[in-house]
Write a structure and sequence with these properties.
By secondary structure, the protein is mainly α. The protein has 2 domains: about 220 residues, Rossmann fold, CATH 3.40.50.620; about 100 residues, Tyrosyl-Transfer RNA Synthetase (Orthogonal Bundle). About 50% of the residues lie in helices and about 10% in strands. The protein contains 15 helices and 7 strands. A 3-stranded parallel sheet has the order 1-2-3. A two-stranded parallel sheet has the order 4-5. A two-stranded antiparallel ribbon has the order 6-7. It starts with a strand and ends with a helix.
């Protein structure tokens, strides 16, 4: 069964997922669930590693993220959806893996520095933040999956999870954890969907909740329109007849994904035959059309129905996790 099993998840730092989450991850999960059993985790423990002074309401956030999974197209009959903290084997395997993972290796992880910068001002670095990759390794290896879907830029981060599995196998002389594959999405635009703004250097930056530059899957038609109208376009294009630079325009990047006529729209923009407001109006129409099925699926999900789905997912996840932990304990001669 592990040959047909996939594991992935998202942090519950915020109760809403955005288009970047969909294009960079969920879209791929939905595609994979036709051929694999995709275990879709809501990572509430991971949300604590960079929390601010006021910890998030993780129960609420987790439930809402699970609703967004389903609204996006995850079928809970094909893909178990569960909350990380409700499967206690995650914490147990994390503890065990922490005994076979060198401190220096964790300090060299590229995302450690990035996540330190996400901390609230004055907040100290916790072991949980440093040990984030160890918990991630436990999350993945607990299900001994065939593979993990990731964007091309994230693939190196998963190598540490494989190294942790190898370290355990070597330490206890048992092949408990087989190697898993990176299932790569090579579409750079989708995997790094830009937000609606630019950084201090005038470059489009990735869509992120921390930058408040997102279009959320739960945004209604008016919210989408308001956000697109304020989105970044070519700063030198002051009039319709001025030439645009679609490669550096957030609106044009979205048209490339969501408009079947994007090539014509880009060329007209480049030649000064199309204005920014025309691009924005076209994008508003296309995005709202794209999001209609999300809104329709989500409106039918109440807390009771999502709790029942999460319960079923938790039970299936625990069935797999408990089998793995039984092998772990045998290898360690704990039983």
């Amino acid at each position: 069964m592990s040959e047909r099993r996939i594991l992935s998840g998202m942090r519950a730092t915020n109760p809403r997922l955005h288009l970047g989450n969909y294009e960079g991850a969920l879209r791929n999960w939905i595609r994979l669930q036709s051929d694999y059993r995709v275990f879709c985790m809501v990572a509430d423990y991971h949300a604590l590693t960079t929390m601010g002074d006021v910890p998030p309401d993780l129960a609420y956030n987790s439930r809402e993220v699970a609703k967004d999974y389903i609204a996006a197209g995850i079928d809970p009959d094909k893909s178990p959806i569960f909350i990380q903290s409700q499967v206690p084997e995650h914490a147990e395997l994390h503890l065990i893996f922490s005994m076979v993972t060198g401190l220096g290796k964790l300090e060299r992880v590229p995302t450690y520095k990035e996540k330190r910068e996400d901390l609230a001002e004055g907040r100290q670095v916790s072991y949980g933040l440093l040990g984030y990759p160890v918990l991630q390794a436990a999350d993945i290896l607990l299900y001994r999956p065939y593979g993990v879907p990731v964007g091309k830029d994230q693939a190196p981060h998963l190598e540490l999870s494989r190294e942790v599995g190898r370290s355990f196998n070597a330490a206890f002389g048992a092949e408990v954890f087989p190697e898993f594959k990176d299932i790569i999405d090579d579409d750079d635009l989708r995997s790094k969907l830009p937000g609606l703004d630019v950084d201090e250097n005038g470059q489009l930056r990735k869509m992120s909740k921390s930058y408040d530059n997102c279009i959320y899957l739960t945004d209604d038609a008016d919210a989408v329109a308001q956000k697109v109208k304020s989105a970044f376009t070519t700063p030198s294009k002051m009039r319709k007849t001025d030439p645009g630079i679609p490669e550096g325009c957030a609106v044009c990047q979205y048209l490339k994904l969501y408009s079947p006529d994007w090539q014509t729209q880009w060329e007209e923009d480049r030649r000064g035959e199309r204005g920014c407001m025309q691009n924005k109006n076209d994008l508003i129409e296309r995005l709202n059309e794209f999001l209609v099925p999300f809104r329709e699926r989500r409106k039918d999900l109440d807390d009771a129905s999502i709790d029942a789905i999460l319960k079923r997912g938790r039970e299936e996840a625990r069935d797999v996790a408990s089998e793995t932990m039984a092998e772990v304990r045998r290898a360690m001669r704990l039983i």
